[in-house]
Design goal:
The chain is an alpha+beta fold. 51% of the residues lie in helices and 18% in strands. The chain has six helices and five strands; from the N terminus they run ααβαββαββαα. The protein has a three-stranded mixed sheet with strand order 2-4-5. The chain has a two-stranded antiparallel sheet with strand order 1-3. The longest helix is centred in the first third of the chain and has 30 residues. The protein is globular. The relative contact order is 0.13.
Length: 191
Protein backbone atom coordinates (compact mmCIF):
# COMPACT_ATOMS: atom_id res chain seq x y z
CA UNK A 1 0.00 0.00 0.00
CA UNK A 2 2.82 2.41 0.80
CA UNK A 3 4.46 1.67 -2.53
CA UNK A 4 1.19 2.29 -4.37
CA UNK A 5 0.78 5.63 -2.57
CA UNK A 6 4.36 6.59 -3.45
CA UNK A 7 3.81 5.63 -7.09
CA UNK A 8 0.61 7.73 -7.22
CA UNK A 9 2.33 10.76 -5.68
CA UNK A 10 5.30 10.48 -8.04
CA UNK A 11 2.89 10.26 -10.97
CA UNK A 12 1.10 13.40 -9.78
CA UNK A 13 4.41 15.23 -9.25
CA UNK A 14 5.49 14.20 -12.75
CA UNK A 15 2.31 15.73 -14.20
CA UNK A 16 2.74 18.94 -12.18
CA UNK A 17 6.48 19.38 -12.76
CA UNK A 18 7.26 22.45 -14.86
CA UNK A 19 8.38 21.77 -18.42
CA UNK A 20 11.16 24.33 -17.92
CA UNK A 21 12.95 21.97 -15.53
CA UNK A 22 13.92 18.95 -17.69
CA UNK A 23 16.27 17.56 -15.00
CA UNK A 24 13.43 17.37 -12.47
CA UNK A 25 11.13 15.75 -15.03
CA UNK A 26 13.78 13.10 -15.85
CA UNK A 27 14.37 12.35 -12.16
CA UNK A 28 10.65 12.08 -11.43
CA UNK A 29 10.19 9.81 -14.42
CA UNK A 30 13.09 7.59 -13.29
CA UNK A 31 11.72 7.46 -9.71
CA UNK A 32 8.29 6.49 -11.02
CA UNK A 33 9.82 3.75 -13.17
CA UNK A 34 11.78 2.43 -10.18
CA UNK A 35 8.69 2.27 -7.94
CA UNK A 36 6.83 0.40 -10.66
CA UNK A 37 9.77 -2.02 -11.01
CA UNK A 38 9.88 -2.58 -7.24
CA UNK A 39 6.14 -3.15 -7.17
CA UNK A 40 6.40 -5.69 -10.01
CA UNK A 41 9.22 -7.52 -8.23
CA UNK A 42 7.44 -7.64 -4.86
CA UNK A 43 4.19 -9.02 -6.27
CA UNK A 44 5.62 -12.45 -7.18
CA UNK A 45 7.27 -12.75 -3.74
CA UNK A 46 3.94 -12.00 -2.09
CA UNK A 47 2.21 -14.48 -4.39
CA UNK A 48 4.84 -17.11 -3.59
CA UNK A 49 4.39 -16.57 0.15
CA UNK A 50 0.59 -16.75 -0.18
CA UNK A 51 0.14 -19.39 -2.87
CA UNK A 52 3.45 -21.22 -2.57
CA UNK A 53 3.87 -21.65 -6.35
CA UNK A 54 6.19 -19.74 -8.67
CA UNK A 55 5.25 -19.08 -12.30
CA UNK A 56 7.69 -21.46 -14.03
CA UNK A 57 8.59 -20.86 -17.67
CA UNK A 58 11.70 -21.25 -19.87
CA UNK A 59 13.97 -18.29 -19.10
CA UNK A 60 17.23 -17.35 -20.84
CA UNK A 61 19.23 -16.67 -17.67
CA UNK A 62 22.20 -14.92 -19.31
CA UNK A 63 19.76 -12.49 -20.91
CA UNK A 64 18.18 -11.74 -17.53
CA UNK A 65 21.60 -11.05 -15.99
CA UNK A 66 22.50 -8.81 -18.95
CA UNK A 67 19.16 -7.02 -18.64
CA UNK A 68 19.85 -6.17 -14.99
CA UNK A 69 23.48 -5.24 -15.53
CA UNK A 70 22.70 -1.56 -16.19
CA UNK A 71 20.63 -1.20 -13.01
CA UNK A 72 23.29 -2.90 -10.90
CA UNK A 73 26.12 -0.98 -12.55
CA UNK A 74 24.49 2.40 -11.95
CA UNK A 75 24.34 1.63 -8.21
CA UNK A 76 27.93 0.40 -8.29
CA UNK A 77 29.13 3.58 -10.01
CA UNK A 78 27.21 5.69 -7.48
CA UNK A 79 29.07 3.88 -4.68
CA UNK A 80 32.52 3.78 -6.31
CA UNK A 81 32.36 0.02 -6.96
CA UNK A 82 33.54 -1.79 -10.09
CA UNK A 83 31.11 -4.33 -11.60
CA UNK A 84 32.34 -7.11 -13.87
CA UNK A 85 29.87 -9.41 -15.63
CA UNK A 86 31.13 -12.36 -17.65
CA UNK A 87 28.87 -14.70 -19.60
CA UNK A 88 30.57 -17.80 -20.97
CA UNK A 89 29.56 -18.38 -24.62
CA UNK A 90 28.23 -21.86 -23.69
CA UNK A 91 25.68 -20.19 -21.38
CA UNK A 92 24.45 -17.46 -23.73
CA UNK A 93 21.20 -19.04 -24.92
CA UNK A 94 20.66 -21.72 -22.29
CA UNK A 95 17.20 -21.67 -20.77
CA UNK A 96 16.21 -22.65 -17.27
CA UNK A 97 12.73 -23.49 -16.00
CA UNK A 98 12.10 -20.82 -13.38
CA UNK A 99 10.06 -17.76 -12.48
CA UNK A 100 11.60 -14.84 -14.43
CA UNK A 101 10.57 -12.11 -11.96
CA UNK A 102 11.73 -14.10 -8.93
CA UNK A 103 15.06 -14.84 -10.63
CA UNK A 104 15.51 -11.09 -11.21
CA UNK A 105 14.65 -10.45 -7.55
CA UNK A 106 17.35 -12.90 -6.40
CA UNK A 107 19.97 -11.32 -8.69
CA UNK A 108 19.10 -7.80 -7.51
CA UNK A 109 19.07 -8.93 -3.86
CA UNK A 110 22.52 -10.52 -4.07
CA UNK A 111 23.92 -7.49 -5.90
CA UNK A 112 22.33 -5.11 -3.38
CA UNK A 113 23.81 -7.04 -0.46
CA UNK A 114 27.27 -6.84 -2.04
CA UNK A 115 26.92 -3.13 -2.84
CA UNK A 116 25.76 -2.32 0.68
CA UNK A 117 28.63 -4.27 2.22
CA UNK A 118 31.23 -2.67 -0.05
CA UNK A 119 29.81 0.83 0.45
CA UNK A 120 29.87 0.72 4.26
CA UNK A 121 31.68 3.63 5.87
CA UNK A 122 34.36 1.46 7.48
CA UNK A 123 35.52 0.42 3.99
CA UNK A 124 37.60 3.59 3.88
CA UNK A 125 40.44 1.79 5.66
CA UNK A 126 40.80 -0.67 2.76
CA UNK A 127 43.36 0.05 0.09
CA UNK A 128 41.56 -1.61 -2.81
CA UNK A 129 38.45 -0.47 -4.65
CA UNK A 130 35.26 -2.45 -4.11
CA UNK A 131 34.59 -5.04 -6.82
CA UNK A 132 31.60 -7.21 -7.64
CA UNK A 133 31.84 -10.00 -10.17
CA UNK A 134 28.96 -11.96 -11.71
CA UNK A 135 29.83 -15.00 -13.83
CA UNK A 136 27.32 -17.04 -15.81
CA UNK A 137 28.52 -20.38 -17.14
CA UNK A 138 27.66 -24.02 -17.69
CA UNK A 139 29.52 -26.40 -15.36
CA UNK A 140 29.30 -30.08 -14.43
CA UNK A 141 27.18 -30.87 -11.38
CA UNK A 142 26.04 -34.30 -10.20
CA UNK A 143 27.02 -35.90 -13.51
CA UNK A 144 25.10 -33.35 -15.60
CA UNK A 145 25.74 -29.92 -17.00
CA UNK A 146 24.23 -27.15 -14.89
CA UNK A 147 23.70 -23.47 -15.54
CA UNK A 148 25.46 -21.48 -12.85
CA UNK A 149 25.41 -17.86 -11.70
CA UNK A 150 28.31 -17.01 -9.40
CA UNK A 151 28.41 -13.79 -7.38
CA UNK A 152 31.68 -12.75 -5.77
CA UNK A 153 33.00 -9.55 -4.24
CA UNK A 154 35.99 -8.37 -2.28
CA UNK A 155 33.99 -7.42 0.81
CA UNK A 156 34.60 -8.75 4.30
CA UNK A 157 32.36 -11.79 3.81
CA UNK A 158 30.09 -13.49 6.29
CA UNK A 159 31.23 -13.98 9.87
CA UNK A 160 32.35 -17.62 10.41
CA UNK A 161 29.49 -18.35 12.83
CA UNK A 162 26.92 -17.40 10.14
CA UNK A 163 28.53 -19.67 7.53
CA UNK A 164 27.98 -22.80 9.61
CA UNK A 165 24.30 -22.35 10.40
CA UNK A 166 21.16 -22.36 8.29
CA UNK A 167 19.71 -19.08 7.10
CA UNK A 168 17.45 -17.69 9.81
CA UNK A 169 14.58 -15.30 9.24
CA UNK A 170 15.16 -11.85 10.77
CA UNK A 171 18.78 -12.65 11.69
CA UNK A 172 21.47 -10.44 10.18
CA UNK A 173 24.98 -9.27 10.92
CA UNK A 174 24.31 -5.79 9.50
CA UNK A 175 23.06 -3.05 11.78
CA UNK A 176 20.82 -1.70 9.01
CA UNK A 177 19.60 -5.10 7.72
CA UNK A 178 16.37 -6.86 8.57
CA UNK A 179 17.36 -10.45 7.76
CA UNK A 180 14.89 -11.12 4.97
CA UNK A 181 16.83 -10.94 1.69
CA UNK A 182 18.89 -14.12 1.76
CA UNK A 183 16.14 -16.12 3.47
CA UNK A 184 13.64 -15.11 0.78
CA UNK A 185 16.18 -15.79 -1.98
CA UNK A 186 16.80 -19.25 -0.54
CA UNK A 187 13.06 -19.90 -0.28
CA UNK A 188 12.54 -18.82 -3.90
CA UNK A 189 15.42 -21.03 -5.13
CA UNK A 190 14.04 -24.04 -3.28
CA UNK A 191 10.54 -23.47 -4.67
Amino acid sequence: QYLEALTARLGAADLLAPDQNPTLRVQLSEALELTETVSASIRPLRDLLVAGKPKVEPVEVAGEVAGLQGVIDSECVRNGIVLEVTVDPTARHVTCACDRVLLRRIIINLATNAIQELARKDRGARAEQGRIRIDVDVSPANGQEALRIVFSDNGSGFPPDMLHQPLTLLKTNRHDGIGLGLVLSDMVLRS
